[in-house]
Amino acid sequence: MMKLKYVLLVAGSLLLAACSEPEKTDEATQPDTEVQAPVTEGDAPEAETTETEQEAVPDSEPGKVPLATDVWQSPTELTFDDTTVSLSSDLWLNSMPLIGDDGTKPSNRLHASVKLQTSDMKTLPKGIDIFQVLLESEGKQWLVKDNLEIRAEGELTLEVVLREGPEWAPGSRVDIAVIFLLGGAEHIIVQHDVALGEVF
């Protein structure tokens, strides 16, 4: 009887050991699955950070537009209280027989009469303060902002007279911008493609 009990105990122990092996196998595989999950979750935030950084690059590089580009996109007419204002300009080179800066050729200094005027014989708004005139031709610029010679022609026109400018080629096409203050606000008005004449 003792031998039979011993044999049954050994057989039972072996049976329990055999039954418990699949459970150990399942437990062994489960940690592998759980370990992989955090790795995948950890990768996701890194990918999101990369995308965020890439999207932030354009925002950190704002477009820089040259001032002259903005000026030449300004309107050729402005309206104040039903009064339309525009530019009318005459440009010429003074080619009188004067010696140039280098002493070897006649001086071809640019002169200009730039008029801010109204249409339909209406008076100009009161309080216009012209403080800059910009001329551009073939990539060259002439900015006049000091001691502007401004003349009022009645109530319809303000004329800015410019003298002794750069020596540009006769027949050049010139863009003109007038920057002025009115009512505490800055305004820009332009005139395009004005022919540069010549006076002998």
UniProtKB/TrEMBL annotation:
Is Signal included in the keywords of this UniProt record?
yes
- Biased composition annotated in UniProt, kind: Acidic residues: 43-58
Q: Where is this region: Disordered?
A: 22-66
Record's keyword terms, sorted:
Signal
Give the signal peptide, or none: 1-20
Name-wise, this protein is Lipoprotein
Q: Which organism is it from?
A: Photobacterium alginatilyticum
